[in-house]
Amino acid sequence: MNSDVLTAEHVGFRYAGVPVLHDVNLRVGSGSMLALTGANGSGKSTLLHLLAGVEQPAEGSIHRRPGTRLALLPQRTSDIDALPLTVAECVQIGRFTLRRRLNRDDRASVATIMQRLDIAHLARRRLRELSGGQRQRALIAQALVQDADIYVLDEPTAALDARSRQGVQELLAERVLAGATVVIASHDPAEAALVERTIRL
Description:
- Strands 5-6-7-3-8 form a five-stranded parallel sheet, with helices on both faces. A three-stranded antiparallel sheet has the order 2-1-4, with helices on one face.
- The chain has one domain: 3-Layer(aba) Sandwich (Rossmann fold).
- By secondary structure, it is α/β, with parallel strands linked by helices.
- The chain contains six helices and eight strands, in the order E-E-E-H-E-E-H-H-H-E-H-E-H-E.
């Protein structure tokens, strides 16, 4: 039986006709972590968007195991600051579904992840009032509070101090031990060294 949860086969992508990715191949199994490294402009964010299904490849194919749930943390943009969200509301978005309201388990998961990422005391603050690192931890919490099989994270710890970065890395390691798949883009050589496999673009 194929244990791969996420694969890319001969994937290519172009922006306005300009090649960004060419003949990219990768396979990621359950309970594993893969890091994408490379210089700015090498296509890391583009590949993550392709893996998450936000973009479609110009060549090749992306396959996710049927029924898998995927959580995406893109690089933060100024758009999030325009929304009048509190930290608690931002994190709760990760547990919303169209079929039901948040239940006790959802609220407990939100409270736990906010505590782990040291943002519980910021629950009623607006995102736009926070420092860059605090805001990033809120967005990481929104992604990690999801009950996902695959976590696709674009430079999740880039704006964090060493203590917060270690906390996020511990949470990701716990997700992997529980059987989830984690794919991260990273500029941090130390962070990339923590994962089992690295692909440099």
